[in-house]
TrEMBL record:
<dbReference type="InterPro" id="IPR000711">
    <property type="entry name" value="ATPase_OSCP/dsu"/>
</dbReference>
<dbReference type="GO" id="GO:0046933">
    <property type="term" value="F:proton-transporting ATP synthase activity, rotational mechanism"/>
</dbReference>
<keyword id="KW-0472">Membrane</keyword>
<dbReference type="Pfam" id="PF00213">
    <property type="entry name" value="OSCP"/>
</dbReference>
<keyword id="KW-0813">Transport</keyword>
<protein>
    <submittedName>
        <fullName>ATP synthase F1, delta subunit</fullName>
    </submittedName>
</protein>
<keyword id="KW-0375">Hydrogen ion transport</keyword>
<keyword id="KW-0066">ATP synthesis</keyword>
<keyword id="KW-0406">Ion transport</keyword>
<dbReference type="GO" id="GO:0016020">
    <property type="term" value="C:membrane"/>
</dbReference>
<dbReference type="InterPro" id="IPR026015">
    <property type="entry name" value="ATP_synth_OSCP/delta_N_sf"/>
</dbReference>
Amino acid sequence: MTQTANNYGEVLFELGIKKDTVEESKRIFSLTEQLHKTLESPIISKNEKYSIIEKVFPKEIENFLKVVCDHEKMSYIDEIIEAYYKKYNEANNILTATLSYVVEPNENQLSQIKNYLAKKYNKETVELTMVEQPELIGGFVLKVGDIEEDNSIRGRLNRLEKKLTWR
């Protein structure tokens, strides 16, 4: 993530814009690639960009997006939103993790995984992104940032293969 995106993401957070508003804006951006291109384009006038922003985005985030357009940083908007989430999660003691699995865990298993992560990383809340990966054969993989805990059968087979070929 670039320093520019981090700076704008922090400003977005400091403005007190609600997470729901940022999520809605992210969803709007994801609906069409043309919106990105239009707001990034040097050919489109500032007034036209402002008009689009006012028609499409939530009122609470309009001024911020106008400033991003003015500074010609709209190409960073996805990174800016990710930087906002990072800052929001830090401020609210939230851990985000990815759980890859073969068979979707039940509520009890999910609760145990969340409790484990909350205790390990000293966080109050854990938000899990669930990803089905049949190629794991069995078990699961937990990923928090750059740290990965591979408890899958595929991972065990790979580690066994490395040990056997080392000798």
